[in-house]
Amino acid sequence: MTTKTRPASEASTLQSCFTIQQFCERNHLSIAFFYKLKQQGLAPVEMTVGRRRFVSIEAEAEWRRARERVS
Question: Which of 22, 24, 50, 61 could form a disulfide linkage to 18, CB 3.0–4.6 angstroms apart?
Answer without folding.
Answer: 22
